[in-house]
Specification:
With about 190 residues, the chain is α/β, with parallel strands linked by helices. Helices cover about 30% and strands about 20% of the residues. A hairpin with a 5-residue loop joins β8 and β9 (about 185).
């Protein structure tokens, strides 16, 4: 992935918004996502309010590389082997959470949902900000997710600090979720 200095100005601007505690919308593999810093409890709770989602539901963290998630996860050997295997399609994995991963990310569970994203905008945001990001579909609870920047603006308007434009990765919807320990599908993609 590119050095942050060479990233597009819009990604550097978005990283500044994230570091200031903002909530943004951006394209991912299948839908538009909402994101913020995972270590900023105020930003995470604002995002959860926008989605009308309870903290107990937990959130996904995306990263440009597995190394960006080092402080957030403590995978077992079996989980580590699964994470190291290449995936043809994007997969969100449930892995053992690190001891410092806050409950507002895990929903109070011993696991955390993670995905190493190959989407250029989503990965670029992770590189530009220097951290993994909360990533959850841009929708209110029970409603369909946004698939465009306009859709995100129509759903959340002035409640978002920034909408980063771009096309989604072409997946049919949100990514598949699997348990890293067993490989069991939790949500089909």
């Amino acid at each position: 992935m590119a050095d942050p200095v060479f990233l597009a100005p819009r990604l550097r601007h978005a990283a500044g918004v994230l570091h200031a505690g903002g909530v943004i919308a951006y394209p991912t593999e299948g839908v538009y996502g909402l994101g913020c810093r995972p270590d900023d409890g105020r930003a995470v709770h604002h995002l959860l309010e926008l989605k009308q989602r309870p903290v107990s539901a937990g959130l996904i963290l995306i990263a440009a590389s597995l190394e960006q998630l080092t402080d957030w996860i403590e995978p077992t050997p079996r989980e580590r082997r699964r994470l190291a295997a290449p995936d043809r399609n994007p997969v969100t994995w449930l892995v053992t959470a690190g001891p410092l991963t806050p409950e507002w990310i895990t929903g109070g569970r011993p696991t955390v949902a993670i995905r190493v994203t190959r989407h250029p905008v989503a990965a670029g945001l992770c590189v530009a900000s220097g951290l993994p990001l909360v990533s959850t579909s841009a929708n209110r609870r029970g409603k369909p997710p946004a698939r465009s920047a306009l859709g995100a603006r129509l759903r959340f308007g002035r409640h978002l600090d920034l909408v980063v434009g771009g096309t989604t990765g072409g997946a049919a919807g949100p990514t598949e979720i699997r348990e890293a320990a067993s490989g069991r599908v939790i949500r089909a993609g």
